[in-house]
Amino acid sequence: MKVNLTDPGLFSRGTFWPVLAWLRENDPVHWHEEDDGPGFWAVTRYHDIVSVYTDQRSYSSRYGMRLDSDPGAVAAVAQRMLIVSDPPDHTHLKSVLAKEFGHAEVPRLHALVERVVREVVREAVAQGEMDFLEVAKQIPNNVVCALMGIPRGEWDWVGTVTTEAFEGDDEETRAGAHGEIFLFFTELLAERRKNPGSDFVSRIAAERRSTGQGAERPLTDEEIVFNCNGVLAGANETTRYSAAGGVLALIERPDQWRLLRTAGPSGVPDAVEEVLRWTVPGVHALRTAVQPTKIGNVRIAVGDRVTLWNVSANRDEAVFEHADEFRVDRSPNRHITFGAGRHLCLGARLARLELKVFFEELISRVGRVEAAGAPVFNASNFTWGLRSLPVRLLQ
Length: 395
Hints:
- There is one protein chain.
- Helix 12 packs parallel to helix 16 (348-365).
- The termini are far apart.
- It contains 16 helices and 14 strands.
- The chain is of the alpha+beta class.
- A hairpin with an 8-residue loop joins strand 12 (376-377) and strand 13.
- It is globular and about 55 Å long.
């Protein structure tokens, strides 16, 4: 089989699934050539992927976490931005940032999410027919903007520029959008240092991180700005694509929609996990080998780039029974949509909460969801999902 996981068309057409299935069966640690690059390893089996995620000694995140990363841009934020850092810096940064999403914050987050989601779903039901992506993107964007204390009038702009930063048509567009986000958070942080509040930005600005030598220091302005960007991006991408992808899965499988509505709120947690397994917005993650190692019987050399295909792991037949079926009552469901090990997604709890409240509201307010047009997917092999999903919500 021809394997080209860098072909955008493979993802816009949704034809990458059989390629990954073939790799799992025939070449699970596959050397992938590149026309304009050094090549990389493509790892496609669940247990191999988890082994790389959890091997902090052999693999590094600081050299980039996606295939098309700009080495210069990555170097500028490495060890200061959570997703491109290794211990001990990663450990110290996460200890500060994770407090804002920890167990103690769940009541506050739940109240915020319920308020935002109910408003969004109520408006969507009243509208009746729409492109569901316009609904799905509001949920995480509005939640994270409220969490950060961003003025309401700027929420739409924040959502638009965040999408451009990761899905812009070319590198110039994406780089320009990232620059706008960094500038926005630089100005927001300066204002919060003068007038601190109870929002996310004010709170992490007041926190201190360990130096690893028994002392502590405040986060630098750069650390705060870089990681606000990371939180904003992560919050927007996962929930938007999973909410939309989950709705499409339910439209295409009326029996699963009926099963979920019959189960009611008690059935939503399992359904959320299945939606996350099924949609997998984070298609791949990149690691760089920093010492000679092996994946199975395959030798990995220092400097080799290793890509972990989460989308493939979540369809691994050795782990998930009837892996190619969407089942809202699937349990257990140990998907790795949020990664694994120390780099488990910081916002996983918030994303689950958003999806839980969303599907609770959907099944309580909507009797049936119908397609009103053909779904359209984006062309990314990094964050993949629906770009358009015309639907009708019927009471």
